[in-house]
Amino acid sequence: MALLEVNHLDVRFALRKGEVRALRDVNFTLERGERLGIVGESGAGKSVAAFALLNLIAKPGFIAGGEVNFDGKTLNHMGERGLRRVRGNRISMIFQDPMMTLNPVLSIGEQMIEAIKAHRRTGTKAARKIALDRLRQVQIPSPEARLDQYPHELSGGMRQRVIIAIALLLDPDIVIADEPTTALDVTIQAEIMALLLSLCEEHNVGLILITHDLGVVSQVTQRMLVMYAGRVIEQGPTREIINDPQHPYTQGLINALPQMATPGEPLNQIRGSMPSLDNLPSGCAFHPRCDFIRRADGEVRPACVEQVPGFTVSGNCRVACHMVEELQQDRRLKEASQ
Fold this sequence. Notes:
Layout: E1 4-15, E2 18-30, E3 35-39, H1 46-53, E4 61-70, E5 73-74, H2 80-86, E6 91-94, H3 98-101, H4 108-119, H5 124-137, H6 143-147, H7 156-167, E7 174-178, H8 186-203, E8 206-211, H9 214-220, E9 223-228, E10 231-237, H10 238-243, H11 248-255, H12 302-306, E11 312-314, E12 317-319, H13 322-337
Parallel strand pairs: 3-8, 3-9, 6-7, 7-8
Antiparallel strand pairs: 1-2, 1-4, 4-5, 9-10, 10-12, 11-12
EC number: 7.4.2.9
Pfam families: ABC_tran, oligo_HPY
InterPro entries: AAA+_ATPase (IPR003593), ABC_Ni/Peptide_Import (IPR050388), ABC_transporter-like_ATP-bd (IPR003439), ABC_transporter-like_CS (IPR017871), Oligopep_ABC_C (IPR013563), P-loop_NTPase (IPR027417)
């Protein structure tokens, strides 16, 4: 059994105009020590999925269906007391902006010691020693001095290192990193990701990396999910998806990378924008933006407009696309006729 199993997860927000489905039938697993990437544009549902794992969806949002099973226990059916034993202890989270995560009126040491004592029966002196050790692991210079400093006294890269140190304080089984380098300079981003990767490998920690940066995902993760409009539309080994993307949306994301453009020419981009979750198109949610909606004869594929695609197995990947399913059927017919 996998360390983390997400089965048919459905998250909704109760608004005045009715319920909006932010996540629809999301399924994936994470093994101990495995690194999983979740990618997609803003509004795809990546962060909602991360918050749902720890049952941190704030009202008017709620988990409407499905299960999040961690180490044999169903988190979304667990009481607040039980969840407190998991959050920050066995599953920790790194948020986008460290200044929004760290308490500005407490020193770094006070915040780290408080986190340790909330989950461990230990004295202040022993907790401070653990905190100091974690700051050394994330390569913060003069860690003794940093413990007594406040968040505003540190640079952005230094604050993010502190956040990583706090995430690893209690030797968690899983770290969820939600856009961990968004607020940092490009020169610092690579250092932070390399540090996070090495620490997860050293401690055999499972990593869920949420990002829109396919370049980072290709270097850090072993498997990946591609999300669109609240649904997983492609999943499989990272290298296989990056080298041979099956879904037109995944192809568009990869083609939009700067290195894929001709020098001196505009960057490639996916036309249109992510649909509003309260007004999703019929059929495949991506069909209004899809370049492959028409067949070779110029006719629109009716299924793309009328039916939500199921998953088709392609190699080691699963893809929710009518075109891929059609190509698979054509291939089977050709093989049968030979």
